[in-house]
Amino acid sequence: MIKETDFLVIGSGIAGLSFALKVADYGKVILISKTTLDESNTKYAQGGVAAVTYEPDNFHKHIQDTLICGDGFCNHEVVEMVVREAPAQINQLIEWGVQFDRNNTGKFDLGREGGHSEHRILHHKDNTGEEIETSLVKKVRQHKNIEIYEQYFAVEVITQHHLGKLVKRSYTDTECYGAYVLDLKTDQVHTFLSKVTLIATGGTGNLYDTTTNPPIATGDGIAMVYRAKGIIENMEFIQFHPTSLYNPGERPSFLITEAMRGFGAILKTADGKEFMQKYDRRGCLAPRDIVARAIDHELKIRGDDFVYLDATHLDSEKLKEHFPNIYEKCLSINIDITKNLIPVVPAAHYLCGGIKVDLNGQSSINHLYAAGEASSTGLHGANRLASNSLIEAIVYADRAAKDAIQKIKHVEINKTIPEWDAHGTTYPEEMIMITQNYKEMQQIMSNYVGIVRSNLRLERAMHRLEIILTETEELYKKSILSQKLCELRNLINVGFLIIKMAQDLHESRGLHYTLDYPKKGNVSEF
Ligand code: FAD
Ligand code: SIN
User: If you ran DSSP here, which 8-state letter would residue 211 be given?
Assistant: First the structure.
């Protein structure tokens, strides 16, 4: 099958859905998603969306908080732009039907999270992501110009390479003509040709054995763009969320939102002692990199499996009212958060780096945009400020949409692209090759490329990953494609990028901490 469209959108989280809605009045949109439309990291977001609404908050404070958290690596222009454009995009979400909680005076009920100097997080209870995802999916399904393909898995973006021409990362004339996409119900690879393409495939938490991310987060878009010779950056900055519920065997790990610490909950070691003040004067509300590292350190020196989050001193009715899903979830494993301490551990949560884009979300490949967690805009620097990612995704979807609407007027669909060549491939004889390599990859990344790194650990990780890369590439060449195989290949690609970029950074900064260079280098700081 060959399909043609003006706008090809890969991914149906907040970035893909909002871009689709913004361009749909200007041309035909094809929206593809590898599972059902609603399944995404977006759906699981809890804390909310950061944006300046009322005094005493102001743009300057949100900008400063973002810059401090980013530890000297943020792009100032981007930070200014996102913070200033955020309120308009909050209004856009509300127009699309998203409901944010309000207090009894009708004002937004603003939450607070680590690194924020003010209450500025708009939220819907403790399931903000579900509220956003459900509202946007409903809108997208109603739009007559949006054609939806669920259970379709993007395999490669199409460039001149597929016409037999040489493409290099240094070339500035590489063009994207669409994507090859695997129909997961028939195992056929189809050609989707487009004038412009948006990668909105989200993050890569499944590289690690403990993650808050659902199974869809396998770095597909980043790996595809890397293979297509696009520029990828800042991959070493993997954010570990300090507080995921310690519940062995559960995957993904259930998140205990940082907003609960903003509400007054306190971190304690197993013997009931507070410890965060030892590490940072902001205590439990220090930025995430500091809190996650402090927990990791306490667990290592004490030999414990988890620390506790204590919310028992808080008003129990208000706690239940603000965090109803967390209350129910914990109760289901016999933890009443109004009476019992909650066991928590850090978990891989967010990727700050990704596909390098400009202020309009345009990647280094022409006609190819990226938005959301798959992209690297410069907003987060070396560490993302809590609740700054949903807002980044929608601000950039808006900017990319405006740019793409103009671009399609001057672009023709390339009709000379060959169909996918599956000649000589067969179904793999044993799936165990894939599942075993998947587990090994997660162990390598968790043990050697986690919260604390070192030269030796990174080198080990690189060698081990090379072995499973070779095996996986051999299997890929001779196999009829499957989702598991493609995801494993993508994750290994992304793992390499993380290790390589971590090896190249000879300092500790933000989320990247290495025992060999425990201090920041001489890059300018705030
Ligand atoms: P996603 O929402 O992850 O969507 C990616 C989409 O791409 C999915 O539809 C997926 O199926 C599809 N896809 C992926 N690969 C392919 C492929 N090969 N082919 C076809 N489709 C593909 N951020 C905040 O700002 N505030 C919060 O409170 C917050 N809480 C969070 C809580 C949790 C538990 C988690 C996991 C994250 C949280 N985050 C939060 C981060 C935030 O949710 C994500 O960064 C954001 O939702 C990413 O949106 P996205 O549109 O880029 O990607
Ligand atoms: C949380 O609710 O703690 C997650 C917020 C985020 O990842 O931005």
Answer: B
Cβ–ligand 2 distance for 259 under 6 Å, the answer: yes
Output the CA torsion 447→450→453→458 (10° steps): 60
Tell me the CATH class for 248-346.
alpha beta
Q: CA angle, 7 as apex, 80 and 128 as ends, to 5°?
A: 50
Q: Which of 18, 40, 121, 384 to mutate to test the pocket of ligand 1 (most atoms within 8 A of CB)?
A: 40
**pLDDT one-digit tens code per residue, 148-191:** 999 999 999 999 999 999 999 999 999 999 999 999 999 999 99
pLDDT for position 523 = 46
User: Is 111's C-beta closer than 6 angstroms to any atom of ligand 1?
Assistant: no
Please tell me the predicted confidence (pLDDT) of residue 525: 37
Q: What are the tens digits of pLDDT across the range 412-450?
A: 999 999 999 999 999 988 888 899 999 999 999 999 999
Average pLDDT of the residues of the chain: 96
Over range 388-411, report the average pLDDT.
98
CA of 490, nearest ligand number: 1
Contact in structure between 59 and 67 (CB atoms under 8 Å): no
Task: From the options 3.50.50.60, 3.40.50.10320, 3.30.565.10, 3.40.1710.10, give the CATH code of 2-236+352-410.
Answer: 3.50.50.60
